[in-house]
Each structure stands twice: as structure tokens, then as C-alpha cells.
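Support request, priority: normal
Reporter: lab tech (M.K.)
Component: structure prediction queue

Hi team, I submitted a job for Bifunctional protein FolD from Nostocoides japonicum T1-X7 yesterday, and the status page still shows it as pending. I've pasted the exact input below so you can check whether something in the sequence is tripping the parser. The sequence length should be 293 residues. Please let me know if I need to resubmit or if it's stuck on your end.
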Amino acid sequence: MTATRLDGSVILGEIKRDLRARVERLAEAGIVPGLGTVLVGDDPGSHWYVGAKHKDCAEVGIASIRRDLPAGSTLEEVLDVVHELNDDPACTGFLVQQPTGLDEFAILSAVDPEKDVDGLHPTNLGWLVLGKEAPLPCTPMGCVELLRRYDVPIAGARVAVVGRGITVGRPLSLILTRRSENATVTICHTGTRDLAEEVRRADIVIGAAGVPGLITPDMIKPGAALLDVGVSRVVGADGKSRVAGDFHPDVVEVAGSVSPNPGGVGPMTRAMLLTNVVLAAERQLEQAQAGAA
Ligand SMILES: Nc1nc(=O)c2c([nH]1)NC[C@@H]1CN(c3ccc(C(=O)N[C@@H](CCC(=O)O)C(=O)O)cc3)C=[N+]21
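Reply from support: The job had stalled in the queue. We restarted it manually and it finished. Here are the results:
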């Protein structure tokens, strides 16, 4: 048996098409959404991600505001740019690409929560806990949207989330346990006594630990849906660097569906970022209209 491929690149294309129509409606109201990115240093991976985000924006009709700072920039220098983008009306939403090597909490907290398209500002994470509408984190929402688009049942499903990180595992668990998703979630982490036992019960497994090959075929319930969020760079036998996920490649023999890596959750993260930028612009338009009335 070979599992269905949960193709994030295909869904990214569909979402871009839908967003283009929403951006056109905003344009009729005189609003051009603008995504700002702040990039610190010269890590090639981070440069690739930021470049891809701006290319996506261009395709959808979102304006780009790009601020690249040299390696060795100080927290004060980064915060100056954050404040500038908070005050720039052309920038409807922005993010500071992680990691910066600086105090991430200080940086995240300085972003205007209404412009926080990462959904990682403490206020927005707080709204998630409290169940009020607010920007939601991109990778967790990308996981949920990928399952929805491929009709994987979420309500009532047993989900094993492997990893409790702030950008994926923890917020994803909160999203999946909302009434609108209604899943039963187990968060597994380095303190989990028997990972195989927890994963084996799950209808949906999310690998978000960043440990290559951690989840092996013997742990998978036949027919389960697997989302591979783990991105580690490993050097193969041929000496070339490649992306390795949290799942052993042979899980496709047991699973019902699997997101490839690359080509799965990564593109969905970008799709949700674009969605958050458009949503932020739509909210800002609503507020302007309410203010004018
Ligand atoms: N403030 C902030 N927000 C982020 O959303 C954020 C961040 N910092 N720091 C780094 C992580 C990582 N991330 C990815 C985005 C797209 C792909 C993606 O599209 N990957 C492609 C290509 C992968 C490859 O070939 O390297 C794929 O999976 O097919 C992956 C990973 C966003 N992040």
C-alpha cells in the first residue's frame, strides 16, 4: 500500500488563486495589503524563506516591504525597524524571520498584535487560549488546512502531536482542541515514557520534533494521516545536504496519507502567512469603515 500524498504545493496554488480575488476586492476599496519582513544576518536558509514569501506576495498582489539587516545587528537596531513597521500604514502585517540570534521574546512582543501575521505575539497566543478570534500561527494553521483540503476527518480523531515547541506543537494542540476542530490531542515530548505507544493510538500524527526519522513504521496505526513538520538538514551518503523529516521514509507503507517533506507543510505555512496578511488588511478596512460611520 502506498499512502496518499498530502501535497501542500498544490493547495498553496489554490489558496493563492482565492486570495488574489480578495486582494482585488480590497483594491476596489483603495487598500493594497503589504507584507513586511525583517531578516537579520546572512543564513542561506532564512534568505530562501524570505525570498519565497515575497515571490508569493507578488503573485497574489500583496506589496512587499523588505528590511534586511546585517549579521551582528543589535536588539535595539531590530526593534527600531519593528517600530518603524508598526507605524507604517503601507505595512498591513509583518514578521521578523527567526532565528535572529537575539531575544526572540523581546522582538515578538514589540510587534503590533494587529500586524502580527505570524500569530506568535503573546497577546494573540493568549487570545487563542481564550478562544477569541485573532491572528493564528501559520504552520499550525497550515497543518489543519492541509487535513481539511484532503478531507481527513479531524472531529473526534485521536491526534498525537510530537513536539511542544512554541511555533508548532503547542499552538497546534490548542487549535485542534477548539470546538471547531474537536480533536482529542496528546502532546508527546522528550519526557514521554513510551512514544511508540502514544503514536500507535493516533488517527493523525504530527511530527514536529525536528528529530530526523524519529517516528518509524512500527509506530503507525494502519491508515493513519501523517504530517511531517520536522525540517532537519542532513548530509546523505552522496555528500549532499537534504531535508529530513521526523518520519522514517518507510511510513508510507503503513499510513493512509502522508505529507511529503519538502512539498507538504512548508508551502502550507506560506499559504497561511498570505492568508493572515489579507485578513489583517480586511480587518483594518473594517475598522476604518466603522470609524468613518
Ligand atoms: N518569523 C518566522 N515565521 C516563520 O513562519 C518562519 C520563521 N520565522 N523561521 C523559519 C520557519 C520555517 N518556515 C518555512 C517556510 C516555508 C517553507 C517551505 O516552503 N519549504 C519548501 C522548500 C523546502 C526546501 O527545499 O528547503 C517545502 O517544504 O517544500 C519551509 C519552512 C517558516 N518559518
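Residues 49, 52, 95-98, 118, 138, 243, 262-263, 266-267, 269-270 surround 5,10-Methenyltetrahydrofolate (CB under 6 Å). DSSP finds nine helices and eleven strands in the chain. Let us know if anything else looks off. Ticket resolved.
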